[in-house]
Amino acid sequence: MKNAFVLDATLEDSQILKLSEPLPFSEGEVRVVVEVLRGVQSKQPLQDYLTELRERQTARGHSPRSKEEIDSVIRAGRDNLD
Known about the structure:
The protein has 2 helices and 2 strands; from the N terminus they run ββαα. The chain is of the alpha+beta class. The chain has a two-stranded antiparallel ribbon with strand order 1-2. The protein is extended, with a radius of gyration of 20 Å.
């Protein structure tokens, strides 16, 4: 990894990290790898989270692929192996 920095951070919500110290740059694309340092408990049951996730996806217009579409992709992949 070129120019890698390892810092601790606190997760303030599901999208905001508060770093333990500043980085030596202020903008640009970076890659974030998250390793949980202490046990983290989910704030909601899995089923509730999945329901909320589907509602957010629907609200932004996401339409999941149908079984037929997925089967077609799998079939095409298998045909390419022959």
